[in-house]
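Q: Hi! Curious about what Thymidylate kinase looks like structurally. Here's the sequence.
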Amino acid sequence: EDKTSMARGSLIVLEGLDRSGKSSQCAKLLSYLQSNGLSVEGWRFPDRTTAIGQMISSYLLNESQLDDRAIHLLFSANRWEKRALMERKLKSGTTLIVDRYSYSGVAFSSAKGLDLQWCKAPEEGLIAPDLVLYLDIPPEKAAERGGYGTGRYEKLEFQKKVAEYYYALRDSSWEVVDGCLEIKAVEEKLRELAMNCILKCQNGKPLVNLWL
Ligand code: Z5A
Ligand code: MG
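A: Let's find out. The predicted structure is below.
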C-alpha cells in the first residue's frame, strides 16, 4: 500500500490585520512548498469568483450597502460553499494555504459591535485549520505600509478593534509570527512552521471542525 497517497494534506491559514503581509507570504509559502514537490494549492477568502463572493466584493468596494449581520452571514456562506471541496482536497493529500478564514470573519464583524458568540456560531462545523499563522503587527505600523486605500475597513481606529478581537480568538492552532520582521525573515519562520504542520498531518493528526 502506498502510504504517501493515504496521507492527508494540511489546512494552513494566514491571518493578520490589513497590510500585515498575508497575501505576499501566502504566495511565497506556496511556491516554496510546490518547489519541494508537495501537492499544495493557494486559496483565499473571500472567494470572489462565486455569486456570493461577488456580492461581498461589491460591498467591500463600497458599491453596495448591506446590513452588518447580512454581510457577516454572506462571508460565512462563502466559506460553507467551499467546505466540501476543501475536505476532498485535504483528504486526497493536497495542502491548502488559505489567505484569511473564519478568524477574519469573526474579528471584523465583532469590531463593528456584533456579539462575539453570535459571530462565531455560523462558522461552527467548518474545517478547523491545522495551523493559523498570525502575522502580528501594530495597527499603526500596518497603516504606514503603502497607506490605506478607500476600502471599507481600512481605517486605523477600526483596525485597532480588529486586533483586539483577533487576540481574543487565539487557540491551540495559532502561531504568532512577528510581522514587522523583514519579509525574508518572516518567510523563513513560516516555512518551518508549515513544514512541521504538514508532517504532523501526514502522520495521522485528525481533521476536526471549528471551533477548537
Ligand atoms: N473580511 C471580513 O470582514 N470577513 C471575512 O470573513 C473575511 C474577510 C474573509 C478582504 O480583504 C476584506 O474582507 C478584509 C477583511 C474582510 N478587510 N479589509 N480591508 P483582502 O483580504 O482582500 O485584503 P487585501 O487587500 O488582499 O490584503 P490586506 O489584508 O490588506 O494586506 P495583506 O495581504 O496582509 O498584505 P500584503 O498585500 O501582502 O502586503 C501589504 C504591503 O506591505 C505590500 O506593499 C507589501 O510589500 C508590504 N509588506 C509585506 N510584508 C512586509 C514586511 N515584512 N516588511 C515590510 N513591508 C511588508
Ligand atoms: Mg491580502
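A: A fun detail: The chain has a mean pLDDT of 96.
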